[in-house]
Amino acid sequence: MKTRNIIFSAVAGLLALSVVSCSNKLDIPQHGVLDYNTFYKTDEQALEADAALYLEILNGGGLGWD
Fold first, then answer.
1. Do the beta carbons of residue 60 and residue 66 sit within 8 Å?
2. How many Å apart are CA 65 and CA 10, to the nearest integer?
3. Rounded CA gap, 64 and 66, in Å?
4. pTM value?
């Protein structure tokens, strides 16, 4: 009976910890990542993206030429 109470207490404790673990730390903003909802608002931003595509092609990436 003692073992059963210990196991039950351990399982209940683990469940309680898993519910309140780190849910507020999951929504942190990432640095260096473009948000596509706000990018491409100006012509300059569109040209930056266009230049990045051509640079990828010139380096041989993305086309299976590795």
1. yes
2. 55
3. 6
4. 0.36
Tokens, residue 14: 């683990």
d(CA 15, CA 19): 6
Tell me the domain boundaries of the chain: 2-58
Q: How far apart are CA 33 and CA 57, in angstroms?
A: 21
Which CA distances in Å does 16 have to 4, 8, 22?
18, 12, 12
- Residue 50 corresponds to which tokens in the numbers above? 């266009």
pLDDT tens-digit series, residues 23-66? 566 677 777 777 777 777 888 888 888 888 888 777 776 555 55
Please provide the DSSP assignment of 18-60 as one string.
HHTSSGGGS-PPPTT---TTTSSSSHHHHHHHHHHHHHHHHTT
